Amino acid sequence: MTRFLRSLFGQVVLALILGTIIGIAAPDFAGKLKPLGDGFIKLIKMIIPLLVFCVVVHGIAGAGDLKRVGRVGVKSLIYFEAVTTIALGLGLLLAFVFKPGVGMNVDPRMLDAGAMSAYAETADRLTHGGTVEFLMKLIPTTVGDAFAKGDVLQVLLFAVLFGCALCLLGPRGRQVAGFVDQLSHVLFKVMGILIKLAPLGVLGAIAFTVGKYGIGSLKQLGMLVVLFYAAVLIFVCVVLGAILRVAGFNIFKLLRYLREELMIVLATTSSDSVLPQVMSKLKRMGVRDSTVGLVIPTGYSFNLDAFSIYITLAAVFIAQATNTPVSMTDLLAILAISLVTSKGAHGVPGSAIVVLAATLHAIPAIPAVGLVLVLSVDWFMGIARALGNLIGNCVATVAIAAWEGDIDRERAHAVLDGLAPPSTEDDLDAEVGKAPSGGLIEA
């Protein structure tokens, strides 16, 4: 028991229990604990842009083969689009099979459109200009602006260019590459300090949520929430499980290996809060650093599997709840538009509602004001969204690394089975997220 409580996993579980008790017993006091959760997430986000830059730059420079880097990038994008399409289709299928909105008989004219005003403007900005505008947003105004805004995709673009330049410089770029590597070690040490605060962040986030919404909050629109959780579970166990099985690994062993990170995401509903730790643990598994550095940050914007399920499921739910007939053309439009709008979700405030609004904006048949119906349970659905997205990106990284030959299979199996012996060079403590002191893997 003592060993369990000393582990990050045990401390997070204890924080979840205490937070729930505080939220039930003292909801007013629980509301004052919200800054603990918000502060923890802000601390993590503080170092993410620079950390992503260092990992990607040194990964590319260490790989020494730009063709390999380009091949991994292309395979990643193809994989992301294929799996995202499956996720979108699963959301549609389950919505039509179980009909969660049928019987609500909501009159769209009776809904409070004012509740959507905070999201409407952002949705217009997201859809304005279409794909071209989205691609233009990938280019930062200045390099400093990308880091200042914390835009991971913009930082990733500059990091790829910087890493390629170092690779082309050859020996002349080694000193700069070495500095970037050392800087990444410093940032991972900082990460090790911050992650120790995770139980406090979890305590604050859970206490606030239970205190505000109540333990029985899931009763409202419960069918939609339960169906969404079931959809994410099916997608993880069946779709992602099959992908990982083809790659030669077991999905449940991977989930057990990532249990600390999943618990933190469960409480904070933010996959950003564990991005550095996840990258470290995947490298500890034996995945090549350049692959981790490219797939994970890119996947945070391009591989939102659970988010994709949410978009199609919620869209059909709104149509059913408002008795709006949906044609096959509308369904195909939802699929096509969602493939684009979901790519702009990461980093957008209230991204789930905003992207859903942006999707429905292009489909007049479904009343966008119906989004008011899902606002009250969006937070609860956000838990499954964050968990599903994180798991999807981890599976993508392992799968692509396996297909590219960028993973030490023997070490990966040993780590997942809990048999990997500790070493002074490569002993990544799962509870503090240290970087391997030996640096990035060389090609």
The coarse silhouette is: globular
Largest sheet data = none
Spans of at least 5 consecutive residues whose pLDDT stays below 50 are 422-443
Proportion of residues in β-strands:
under 5%
Quantity of strands, as a count: 0
Radius of gyration, in Å, reads 22 Å
CATH topology: Proton glutamate symport protein
Order of helices and strands: HHHHHHHHHHHHHHHHHHHHHH
| Overall CATH class | Mainly Alpha
Helix content: over 70%
**Helix/strand structural class:** mainly alpha
CATH architecture: Orthogonal Bundle
Number of domain modules: 1
Distance between the termini: 43 Å
Return the average pLDDT rounded to an integer. Answer: 77
Number of helices: 22
Give short descriptive properties of this protein.
single chain; Proton glutamate symport protein; 72% helix; globular; disordered C terminus
